[in-house]
Amino acid sequence: MTKSLFLLPGDGIGPEAMGEVRKIIAYMNAEQGVGFETDEGLVGGCAYDAHGAAISEGDMAKAMNADAVLFGAVGGPKWDDVPYEVRPEAGLLRLRKDLELFANLRPAICYPALANASSLKPELVEGLDILIVRELTGGVYFGEPKEIIDLGNGQKRGIDTQVYDTYEIERIASVAFELARTRKNRVCSMEKRNVMKSGVLWNQVVTETHKRAFSDVQLEHMLADAGGMQLVRAPKQFDVIVTDNLFGDMLSDVAAMLTGSLGMLPSASLGAPDAKTGKRKALYEPVHGSAPDIAGKGIANPIAMIASFAMCLRYSFNMVAEAERLEKAIANVLDQGIRTGDIMAEGCRQVGTSEMGNAILKEFSDLSA
Ligand SMILES: NC(=O)c1ccc[n+]([C@@H]2O[C@H](COP(=O)([O-])OP(=O)(O)OC[C@H]3O[C@@H](n4cnc5c(N)ncnc54)[C@H](O)[C@@H]3O)[C@@H](O)[C@H]2O)c1
Ligand SMILES: CC(C)[C@H](C(=O)O)[C@@H](O)C(=O)O
Ligand SMILES: [Mg+2]
């Protein structure tokens, strides 16, 4: 079986974090004979600089044909004034939409050694293990019309449209219920049915999907604003949270801070399994952005990117033991008190991006021996 990986490091700290994953891939090929075949392309601002588009057609085709895409981050102030259609973020949105990556899995795990790094009291986050399942190809991100119109009276109107069809809600709810069965068997669905028609439909379809095929899973509904509050009040009450594209974006950044830093949160963006082969298209992306404030300094935390690669091993290549070993390597390095600046604490040793990557690779290779 081929194992093709298409790497899109992107902008800002994206290439810095991806460099650490590249080392792990090289190690797995050289020492474990895994046989990953890698190729690389441009996405985001760097693609705009090279081709005038946030991703070229050639790189889109490569992403489409790869077994898995590894994505770094895009964006930055350099491209603040480029036309909206070709802004860096458009490259990521096109990848998600064209590859039909409707299910974005964002696990928020608080590693024991980092309970003190969260902005919340340690007892609230110790042992935290929640999974946000974010709908990724619908909602207000892609709904039409999406425009700014001139009203002709000195006023303009900005329009975004929140749209969800039954099948979109059904398939993301099914993913959440299936994943809950492998965890604590609980799903909390978040929408705003008190204000939004799409929220009313979301609530109905999740309820019906549950009744039809997943009644063994415990289901709860919560208004998304209250859900945000509960996430910081008592986050451990949740197991799996399923929500729409925009609420999922915001709630996952909130969840990131429960784990200590945005630099800790990985994600997997998955499509539906192919009817014939069972294979699903997939892109693995840290939740954080290009972090322009620290880009180029060699101090970014590469853990979100490395943990995204662990998700790739698990979901795209069924290399579950290797994924667990890589996650254990991350936990061990944190236990040793090795920290990048964003999760630095008293008594720990502060390191840069590549030193953190090297420490994780060493643990990974020790655990593999
Ligand atoms: N997936 C993506 O490519 C993605 C995601 C979010 C934002 N963005 C883009 O990134 C740019 C910057 O956005 P932003 O500043 O709102 O969000 P950001 O995630 O880039 O940064 C927010 C804060 O978190 C810190 N941070 C983020 N990742 C870190 C890491 N790995 N290690 C240490 N610190 C880290 C940053 O230094 C910054 O202070 C924007 O252009 C935005 O559109 C891209
Ligand atoms: C960069 C941006 C398009 C993206 C999103 O809004 O989905 C990011 O914030 C994320 O969380 O993945
Ligand atoms: Mg976001």
TrEMBL record:
One GO cellular component term:
cytosol
Q: Which pathway is this protein engaged in?
A: Amino-acid biosynthesis; L-leucine biosynthesis; L-leucine from 3-methyl-2-oxobutanoate: step 3/4
Q: Which reaction does it catalyse?
A: (2R,3S)-3-isopropylmalate + NAD(+) = 4-methyl-2-oxopentanoate + CO2 + NADH
Provide the residue positions that the database annotates as binding substrate: 96, 106, 134, 225
**How many cofactor units bind, and how?**
Binds 1 Mg(2+) or Mn(2+) ion per subunit.
Q: Which NCBIfam families does the entry link to?
A: leuB
Instruction: Name it.
Output: 3-isopropylmalate dehydrogenase
Instruction: Please give the organism.
Output: Pseudorhizobium flavum
